[in-house]
Design a protein that fits this description.
The protein is an alpha+beta fold and about 80 residues long. It contains three helices and six strands. Helices cover about 25% and strands about 25% of the residues.
């Protein structure tokens, strides 16, 4: 069984992800960030959030400055290799 499938089966995928200003979800530790100004990033905490995003669900949250972020996608590197 592939490592990613094992992690999902074993519940190793966290229920919290970092969200870039472009609305992409990243696992903590991802080296591929699409923005370096973390003041514009948010955190999305939701049960099974990674799987739900992969199933096409979207979320609306606020970044640290109170700006609205629509979370509708997942970082490709995180999909392939995460969580770190």
């Amino acid at each position: 069984m592939a490592e990613r499938q094992r992690q999902q089966r074993d519940g190793a995928v966290p229920d919290s992800v970092l969200v870039s200003p472009q609305g992409l979800a990243h696992f903590g530790g991802c080296s591929h960030k699409d923005d370096t100004d973390y003041s514009r990033w948010g955190v999305l905490d939701a049960t099974d959030v990674w799987q739900r995003l992969g199933n096409g669900e979207s979320f609306t949250i606020k970044d640290d400055g109170g700006r609205r972020l629509v979370v509708a996608g997942r970082c490709r590197d995180c999909v392939e290799h995460g969580p770190w």
